[in-house]
Amino acid sequence: MIIYAFRAALPRRNFALNSDRLAKKAKYHFPKHFKKRDFKRVSRAAVFVYEITTAFGVHLGFIAQTDLQEFINKNIKPHEKTLKSKEKLSKKLLLDRAAMVKPVLVCHLPSNDLTRLLQDHRDNHAPSLTVKLSKNSDLHRIWPIYDLPTIKQLQRLAGCVDHAYIADGHHRSKVLQQLSKKPKNHKLNVERVCSAYFDFNDVKILDYNRMVEIHKSISLPDFMMQLERKLTVRKTKQALRASGKHHLSMLLDGQWYTLSWKPGILKKYQKLDVILDHQVFDTEVLNKILHIKNIKTDKSITYFSGENSLQEIENKLNNRPGMAAFFLYPVEIEQLVQLTEKGKTLPPKSTYFVPRLHNGIICDDFKMWSVLQGN
What we know:
Layout: E1 3-4, E2 9-11, H1 13-16, H2 19-35, E3 39-41, E4 47-54, E5 57-67, H3 69-72, E6 76-77, H4 84-97, E7 99-100, E8 104-108, H5 112-123, E9 129-132, E10 139-145, H6 148-159, E11 164-168, H7 170-180, E12 192-199, E13 204-206, E14 208-213, H8 220-230, E15 231-236, E16 247-252, E17 255-261, H9 263-267, H10 277-287, E18 301-305, H11 310-317, E19 323-328, H12 333-341, E20 352-354, E21 364-365
Parallel strand pairs: 6-11, 8-12
Antiparallel strand pairs: 1-5, 2-3, 4-5, 4-10, 5-12, 7-21, 8-11, 9-10, 13-20, 14-18, 14-19, 15-17, 16-17, 16-19
Helix pairs in contact: 4-7
């Protein structure tokens, strides 16, 4: 990867205390708050060590600008298709802000030398910014690296990473590619992408699940009858997530079920490079049983991740007859790599990466390129 140091804008401590307010105001009103000096540009160009502590562990990575050509040339590979409506919204926000207020999240193969460099800097310096999120108590900490030899060493190690994968930020990276094309009708420097890099040891893909209003499409008895033609369905008294590949769990009208695909159903997908439960479920249940044509936009579907507890989902479904929650086994990183290396995409809403980035913690102003020699 070709990366650059840059002069990021960080929120001042008092402004960052309310993380919900920080995210909202950075997302929609960054120029106003930058002008009011709620954000402060770092003194000189840097690469930033970035550590996020979540309920799932400590995640250590770094933030830098990435040459946009790495995305254009698919050295940084997408794994999902973008939506025109979301591209339009993302473009509007990027142009209105003239900045990226949240980096694109990128994951890559582990490098012991790179990890040691990040750990050494973290352990021997005080963080310049600490933000604790009010929603999930995630703790974000940032350490700038100003030292030129260390930056060059990090650039060299990043240059040894041949391929990386977009974990979050498909629409932003796609829009930046669109904005970089000539003729330009804007005056922004978009040829570098603010990116947060975490290796595969420091990211986790959680289950990404579906909550569906069954009764809008079919009677519940008919739904269960058709479901049992495709899956082995067993009642259980235990609330639980999917136990493994090709196994699911379901909560419907207060009753929990374990589900597993019947061999005849899986046989239909044998020619695929990878059989993903999300794809089988979307096709066999949402499309064929419930007649949902577009799962990206259908309002009868709500998506939720492994960050939501089973008790939360039970509470949401209380007094909602005919609403079912389906828990699917998480996509594995090896499956994601296998498919993206072949230029293929995953089903919509099939991956939920941890850690999650947050608007406003580190921002990149498009109006100014501040590389190592900049001011």
